[in-house]
Amino acid sequence: MGLRNLGKIAAALLRGGLPAGTPAAVIASATLADQQVLVSTLERVAADALEANFAAPAIVVIGHIVRTRQQLLDASARGAEDSACED
């Protein structure tokens, strides 16, 4: 339902005052081998998800928490580099 109504949800949040550049993400088929992750902005997320052919089941995340994903990926990569240096 969230993915199907994403354009309406994003428009309502924009009308409510959230900035167009607010981070937004869509995660389709989470935890499965064919998982897809799209990181965008509130202004573009519906169009980007449609363009990328995202389909349900999907989770939509809106807000600054979306940035945490990149921070976790960066920290994981640094940890892997540190482990490789110790070997």
Brief synopsis:
The chain has 87 residues and is an alpha+beta fold. It is built from three helices and three strands; from the N terminus they run αββαβα.
What's the layout of helices and strands?
Blueprint: H1 6-15, E1 23-28, E2 36-41, H2 45-51, E3 58-62, H3 66-86
Antiparallel strand pairs: 1-2, 1-3
Mean pLDDT level: 90
Estimate the global geometry from the Cα principal axes.
Answer: flat
Assign the CATH architecture: 2-Layer Sandwich
CATH names the topology as: Methyltransferase, Cobalt-precorrin-4 Transmethylase, Domain 2
CATH superfamily: Tetrapyrrole methylase, C-terminal domain
Given helix and strand content, the structural type is: alpha+beta
Approximate strand percentage: 15-25%
Radius of gyration: 16 Å
Distance between the termini: 48 Å
Number of strands: 3
Low-confidence stretches: none
Order of helices and strands: HEEHEH
Work out the helix count: 3
Helical residue percent?
40-55%
Number of separate domains: 1
